[in-house]
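Retro notes, item 3 of 5
We never archived the inputs for the magnesium ion complex last cycle. Fixing that now. Sequence and ligand:
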Amino acid sequence: MIEFRSVTKTFPDGTRAVDDFSLVIPARQTTVLVGSSGSGKTTLLRMINRMVEPTSGAVEIDGVSVLDGDPVALRRRIGYVMQNSGLLPHFSVIDNIATVLRLNGVARREAHERARELLDTVGLDQALAERYPSQLSGGQQQRVGVARGLAADPNILLMDEPFGAVDPIVRTELQQELLRLQRELGKTVVFVTHDIDEALLLGDRIVILDRAARIVQQGTPDEILTAPADEFVAAFIGADRGRRALHLKQTPHGTVVVDADGRAQGTLVQSPADLLDAHPPRATDEVD
Ligand SMILES: Nc1ncnc2c1ncn2[C@@H]1O[C@H](COP(=O)(O)OP(=O)(O)O)[C@@H](O)[C@H]1O
Ligand SMILES: [Mg+2]
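Structure as it came back at the time:
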């Protein structure tokens, strides 16, 4: 469990990035911090692994302040995946993944063995092991970033907009992979995004943030979709614009389900029984 207690962070130039923030993040679940750019998400994440220290208040992991003890040791037991993958350009894929293990004192051979297993874990071909980051696609680089984050088998995995820079199809793939991984690994994942749809998909719990990391609402995706706390949240999840309302559209090839923006979301199967099997109804999906 990670706990923020009345945490404030004011940077030396006077910017208050986080103002009196308190939150309990349960273990072995995915908690998504979602808010627009500049709301303080990265600052919050970096206070967990002490890359940023609070101006006041405390951040605790299992009841122990992150300021107690050695910051380097702390960082080695917390996985951190960044938006631009943060890979070392002059290290091969396998060395990028193995670096954390080497720093932890694992012998080279053993570190490489473990790194190769991690390629499988994140769905990367072993043939990519000797390549350099610049020789990989954006999606592959992000997978390497995730593998590196998992290398030391940390209990906590921090992910800062890890899929922000890849195209929508690869992004969907990476999101599904993360859901699968999380089912297998059960880490305490703290995931940061500005994309509410990503938050609703990945989060066991979602925390919606406004400026200076003010918590506007927190809860499960269902709680947030069915009872947005205020107009800010309603606007954020698109409820006010009916973005989540689904409609049927007849086409020469059959009936297509479209959203309020007219984007196809799927096709309608023929019998109502099939429909229920394929898409159990949700309180929030209106079909007219
Ligand atoms: N090192 C820094 N010095 C001064 N201001 C900073 C620093 N890092 C972040 N900020 C400011 O703090 C606020 C929150 O930033 P950040 O945590 O990066 O937000 P987010 O990740 O939600 O986009 C922003 O106004 C940003 O400009
Ligand atoms: Mg950020």
